[in-house]
Fold these 3 entries.
Entry 1:
Amino acid sequence: MVYMPLNKKNFYLDKSKMHKIHDLSAPWGVDTPLWPFPGPRQDLIFPRGQYLGRFHKRTMTYTGTLHAGTHMDAPNHVLHEEEVDRERYGYSLDEIPLEHCIGTGVILDMRHLLTEFQEKWDSVGGEIKKLGNIWVELKPEDFEKAAKKDGLEILPEDWVVVNTGFHHFWRKNNDKYYNYYPGMGPEAAKWLIFEKHIKGITGTWGATDAPLWHHPLKEQMPWLDTAYREATGKDPTVEFPDYEPCHRLFTQHGVCSIENAGGDIDDVTGKRMTIAAFPFRCEMADGGFVRLVAWEKGAF
């Protein structure tokens, strides 16, 4: 093999003339945190089939869930085919209309929720029985307040990106990230779908639904069931009697749903941008990785 020396004098692409694209995706790899299902779960595996030292090229394969890192859920992840207008909105990941995957949108600033959470957590030393109801279910008024603060408005066919600040726990404290993130319930989902008529939804959260909306919690997340009961004295089976209602509502109505936003989101929070996240064309996939990006409207 003949080596190829680096000659930077031949470089001709001028990055200074290119428009900035902001990456709102979380980095992921072998230590990517995964949704904490009970029981053992296979980690992400990236074996090399070929490597540069011998084959002069690197070839990797991947074994693992499609629901890792920043990813989009397809309708077939949570819905039966008869519950979906497949011709209109698609069913598996490869069928999601690409027109739904790009558009203008707002990046809402709800980072005060991280500050409030951490202050309350620290005030009791993380002792569950003293926490009280530290979990936040976002309501329509939270979206309206965040938009108004920065002079934004959620318009029909918008993408809505929510920055709760919890992406700062990604890979640093996965317990806090997955079990305590501020998230949505069916009230917010229905408001965004039927009143605001949005096209896409994503946020710095572990799932489209708030952590407590995983009924029955004592089976899906038994440690969280225990924590909620100890902290509040309430029964999550009564308070949150459905399993991932937001997942089903959004995907049934053609709204692209992306989990685990992060990356450079703090740089563009409080702005109206163009948002895009294209899923790969994988037949039968019930979800898959996306590169969630944003750029200034009209840049291209």
Note: The two ends are 41 Å apart (CA to CA).
Entry 2:
Amino acid sequence: MNKKFLKLMSLALVVMMMSVALVACGGGDDKGNDGALTEEEYKAKVQEISTTMSNMQTTMNEKMATIDPTDEKAVDALFEEIKAPFVEFAALKAPAKYEAAQAKFKSGCEAMIEFIDTAKALSKDPASADANKLQELLTTAMTDIVEGATLAEQADAK
């Protein structure tokens, strides 16, 4: 596994983790009948996922230092571990107050999931590298997560 590539993944996770942390703030408790989380449940879940992402940075750095790049199962497991919180975050059902923010978060998480899947494929076949696609996905992920955080802050202010 290429160290430069792993550093890029590490940077992507740090940026995403910091952006997600912006969401866990604010107000009331409003549960609709559409299966959405209450505001309190939503913010608690976002905080939980943010903490997971924050801890993942340390865990990933430790694993990157010890993982055998020829052990495909270990490499695949690492990519899936990195991807899991983004999958979970994208699947959250936000209360009405946070629907617009969650739509952006979901879009950003889906771009990050595609980035991780593309990076995983790249780790197996470096010749398949499409640096433009990776950069585009990472940019979309970061932009959408930051926009989602802004929308969440605006919702909290209401």
Note: Residues 22-33 have pLDDT under 50 and may be disordered.
Entry 3:
Amino acid sequence: MKKIVICTVLMAAGAASLMNMADRVDVQSPEFTLKNSYAMTLRYDKSMGEKTIKAAVIDSYFRSVASNGKIIRWNKDSMPLRVYIQDSADVPGYYREIVMSAYQAWQRASEGLVSFEFVESPSEADMKCYFKNTDNKKSIGVHAFTINGNRISDSTIVFNKTDDKNHSLDSKQLFSSALQEIGHSLGLTGKSKSIYDVMYPIGTKFNTEITQRDLKTLGLLYSVVPDITNAPLSSEESSQLLTVSEVLATLNVPVTNDTKNLDEIVAGDVSTHLALAEQYRRRAEYEKAAKEYQAVAQLKTDRRSKSEVYYEIAVMYLDAEEYGNAKASAEIAMATDMNDLTETLPALINYYTKRSTSAVEQLETILKQNPYNKHAYKLLCKIYRDKHHENLLNSTIRKYGKTAGSED
């Protein structure tokens, strides 16, 4: 049978978490069980309501994965996948440890949906990682599936040993890149449009967190019947899985007419307020969502965390095109604590309100004063990409890529 190798040039990506996701509690009421939106479901099946699946699709980039060709992923029964990481004497010792920790990060974040064990020989591995210089020094790595027919034989990731100036790779940059490459090797072949996700095409070496959107996309991917996988699915598993068309069909289902009464739930802790805020936000009840977010801010003990909550409120109102409320929330965020994140809010508001020229001027000023501001860098890159200003994009990457981020 003809052997096909599917290659994907991977780019380092990052994910900035704006809210504290550590607390995970369930709140029980006679009529309604509310789970913290940050303790998300990563396994979807036909027993779930269409609204639940739709909410996950909306808050993910699964549509990009589905539109990128055939669904390629590993059989969940094959977990843990066996991983070989080359122990090369001609690269710094931390290279291998960082790549290993990136695999462990995916396992932890997915709560075991995907899992790995490390082996010493490539002949016994499902996934193989090597360190060798490639022709493309602007990319930290290249990923490839080896496929026979509709079966995955293995997955290979090759990391460049040095950057385009022959310097050893920065540890955070390598870790961020490894997260994205592993995402591709798990089947996340699509790209996110959010600058905060691991699978966003332009990354930053400082963003090293897997986001909710990354995880929801992974959860949906491993909840549908694959076109290509490493081992046949059992008939029982296939019967429980969704098809891509079934998942996408949920987009025609309304989600704003949920009959459960959120107003009857009494919130007393951060996680419950966050869960309520997320639910109200999905129902487009933004004033109620803002009140729940404000309750979270009051429970936070440091100015930085409080400002991040008001930043999230501002973003919510921007998404809803309620620009007056967005500006008011942004002003509170900046007054509470001026930091790298809140400093970008005026530019973000200008970007949303179609004043890209002003936004660019503001972001360039920020980066001149602080070339390490990753939030300003990512937003500036996004604007240039949206406007198809490739020369300006490349110039920005060359100028600030080593301090705030890199194209990879």
Note: Residues 1-39, 255-259 have pLDDT under 50 and may be disordered.
